[in-house]
Write a structure and sequence with these properties.
The complex is a heterodimer. Chain A is mostly helical. Chain A has helices at 2-30, 34-56, 59-75, 86-104, 106-120, 131-150, 153-164, 169-176, 180-202. The chains are: A mainly alpha, B alpha+beta.
Chain lengths: 206, 323
C-alpha cells in the first residue's frame, strides 16, 4: 500500500516535472529561443511520427505531416494554453493534419497503400518461428492495415490513439476536443466499424 | 445479438470495463457460445492492433524543421490572433456582391435616368426603353435605345462634383462610355416659353442617349450647376454638361450654330463651357453605324404670334462631333 502510494507520488511528480519542463521550453521558445523548440522537437518527434505513420501508412506522408505539425506548432506557440500537456496539443495538430490529408487524398492514398502492400508482401519478415504462423500473422496484419486505412479518418484517429498508442480517454478527449464520454463513444463506434471492415478480409464470419 | 450486448463485448474485450463488471459479464457470456466467439474475435483484433508496431525510424531532422520554419517565415511569438486578418473577407465579399448586382442592373437597364423638374422627380431614359417609376417621380419618356444605362444625378453631385443642382438644371452622369451630360434650361419668363428643351447626343460608335428638361422654374437653379459641369448661360438657356467622377470616358459633344464643336468632357473645374446663342438648342441624333442624322436647329420668334418656333439649320449624318 505504502509502496503503491510512493510509486503514484513519483509518477505524479515526474509527470509534473515533465510538464514543467515542457512548459519552460515552450516559454523559452516563445521568447525566441529556437534551441528550446529544437529540444521539444527532439523529444516528441518520434511520438508524432508514430501517430502520423499509423494514420497515413506511409513514411513520406508521415514525415511531411510531422514537419508541418512542428512548423505549425512553432508558429502558434502563443496559442498554446498551459493547462494542457504539450504532447496533447501537438497530437491534436497532428490529428488535424492527418484528417485533412486523408480527406483530400483518400482515393490516392488507398491506391498507393494497396500497391505498396502488394509489393512488400514477399519481403515481410515474420516474428514466429513457425512459417505457417508467420504467414497467418502477416495476413492478419495486412488485413488490419487495409481495414484501418479504409476507415474514415475520424474513426482511424481514435483507434490509433486508444488501441495502438494506448492513450487514456481524458487525453483523447482533449486531443479530439470533446468530452470523455464523447471520446469513449467515438472509440466504441470506431472499433465496431473496424470489426465490420476486417471480418470479410480475414474470413471471420463471426 | 443486440447492439448493447455487442457494445459490452467490445468494452470487455478492449479492457474498458471495471474488474467487477468484467467478471459479471464473463459469467453471463459463458453460457452463450456465439457471444464467446464474438468476444474472442474482438480480443484478437485488440491483439492485432497492438502488433502494429513496425514503425520505421523517422528521418526528419532538426535541420529540416529549422529550414521549414525559416521557409514559411518566422512569426514573432505571441502574435495577435489572426481573426483580424480575416475581418476584411466579409467586407470584400459584400463589396463584390454589391458590384455584381450593380453591374447586372446596369446591364439590364434597370437604372433609370432621373431628373428633377419643378414639381418633383422625373425618371426617364432607361436603357432598354422601359421606364421605371421612382418614388415620387413622374415617368415622362424613354431615353431611347441606348445600350448603356444613364444615370442622371440631380441631387448634390453634378458631374461628380460637390455643387448642387437646383431647379431648372439637369445633370446626367454616365457611368459608362457614353456621353456624359448635364444640361438644362433656366427659363426667364419673358423670353422663353416653358417648353424649352435641350438635347444632347453622343457621337462615335456609341449610340446616343438623351434627356431633356421639361420645365425649369428659375434661372438661379441653373446657375447652381456651378463649376462642376459646363454650363452655358445665355439669355436664360443654360446648358451644362460634365463628366462624372466615376471614371467615364466621355464621347459627348455639343453642337452649336456656327461655333466649334465642344466636348462635354472634363473633370470638375476643367469642363469646357460652350457658349450658345440665344435660343439655340442642340439637336441630337446618331452618328457612325447608326446613321441617324445630326440636326441643328435654331429657335426664333414668330413675328405675328410671338410664339417660339424652331428652324432646322443643318442636318447631316456624317458629322464628327467632339473630335
Amino acid at each position: 500500500m505504502v509502496e503503491s502510494r510512493v510509486v503514484s507520488l513519483g509518477t505524479s511528480v515526474s509527470g509534473r516535472l515533465e510538464l514543467d519542463t515542457d512548459l519552460r521550453l515552450v516559454m523559452l521558445a516563445r521568447e525566441g529561443d529556437f534551441g528550446a523548440f529544437e529540444t521539444l522537437f527532439e523529444r516528441y518527434r518520434s511520438l508524432a511520427f508514430r501517430f502520423a505513420y499509423q494514420m497515413t501508412s506511409s513514411r513520406d506522408d508521415a514525415e511531411d505531416v510531422v514537419q508541418e505539425a512542428f512548423v505549425r506548432a512553432y508558429q502558434n506557440l502563443h496559442r498554446y494554453r498551459d493547462e494542457a500537456k504539450f504532447t496533447t496539443w501537438l497530437l491534436r495538430i497532428v490529428t488535424n493534419l492527418c484528417t485533412d490529408r486523408a480527406r483530400s487524398s483518400h482515393r490516392r492514398t488507398a491506391l498507393e497503400q494497396q500497391e505498396a502492400m502488394g509489393a512488400l508482401d514477399w519481403m515481410t519478415i515474420g516474428t514466429q518461428d513457425d512459417p505457417v504462423r508467420n504467414l497467418e500473422e502477416d495476413r492478419r496484419k495486412i488485413a488490419l492495415r487495409k481495414a484501418l486505412a479504409a476507415l474514415p479518418a475520424h474513426h482511424r484517429s481514435v483507434i490509433v490513439l486508444r488501441d495502438i498508442e494506448e492513450r487514456e480517454y481524458p487525453e483523447i478527449s482533449k486531443i479530439l476536443g470533446c468530452t470523455v464520454g464523447g471520446a469513449k463513444l467515438r472509440v466504441l463506434r470506431a472499433r465496431r466499424a473496424l470489426r465490420d471492415r476486417i471480418a470479410p478480409l480475414i474470413g471471420d464470419e463471426a | 445479438m443486440n447492439r448493447k450486448r455487442n457494445d459490452d463485448l467490445i468494452r470487455l474485450a478492449f479492457g474498458d470495463l471495471r474488474e467487477s463488471e468484467a467478471e459479471q459479464l464473463r459469467a453471463e457470456l459463458s453460457k452463450d457460445p456465439q457471444a464467446m466467439r464474438e468476444l474472442g474475435a474482438y480480443e484478437g483484433l485488440r491483439a492485432d492492433l497492438r502488433c502494429l508496431d513496425d514503425i520505421p525510424e523517422p528521418q526528419i531532422s532538426t535541420e529540416m524543421i529549422r529550414d521549414a520554419i525559416l521557409k514559411q517565415g518566422l512569426k514573432p511569438a505571441g502574435a495577435r490572433p489572426s481573426i483580424l486578418n480575416f475581418a476584411w473577407l466579409p467586407v470584400a465579399a459584400a463589396a463584390t456582391l454589391f458590384g455584381v448586382v450593380v453591374v447586372q442592373r446596369l446591364n439590364t437597364g434597370e437604372i433609370p435616368v432621373v431628373t428633377r423638374s419643378g414639381s418633383g422627380l422625373v425618371a426617364k431614359g432607361t436603357q432598354s426603353g422601359v421606364t421605371m417609376p421612382i418614388a415620387g417621380a413622374e415617368v415622362i419618356g424613354s431615353g431611347g435605345s441606348i445600350d448603356r444605362p444613364l444615370v442622371l444625378d440631380t441631387t448634390k453631385n453634378v458631374g461628380g462634383g460637390s455643387e448642387g443642382v437646383g431647379d431648372g438644371a439637369v445633370a446626367m452622369n454616365s457611368k459608362t462610355d457614353i456621353g456624359n451630360f448635364a444640361f438644362g434650361t433656366a427659363q426667364t419668363e419673358s423670353k422663353f416659353a416653358p417648353e424649352k428643351f435641350a438635347i444632347a447626343t453622343t457621337v462615335g460608335s456609341r449610340p446616343a442617349g438623351f434627356a431633356s428638361l421639361k420645365q425649369s422654374s428659375t434661372r438661379q437653379g441653373a446657375e447652381k450647376l456651378g463649376s462642376q459641369g459646363s454650363r452655358s448661360k445665355e439669355d436664360g438657356t443654360t446648358l451644362a454638361f460634365g463628366n462624372g467622377s466615376v471614371g467615364a470616358r466621355p464621347k459627348s459633344g455639343f453642337a452649336s450654330r456656327g461655333g466649334p464643336i465642344r466636348s462635354g468632357a472634363g473633370k470638375a473645374g476643367n469642363v469646357p463651357r460652350p457658349k450658345l446663342e440665344e435660343g439655340m438648342l442642340a439637336a441630337a441624333g446618331r452618328s457612325g453605324a447608326d446613321s441617324e442624322p445630326l440636326v441643328m436647329i435654331e429657335t426664333d420668334q414668330d413675328g405675328q404670334s410671338g410664339a417660339q418656333r424652331a428652324t432646322e439649320v443643318e442636318s447631316t449624318s456624317n458629322v464628327l462631333v467632339g473630335g
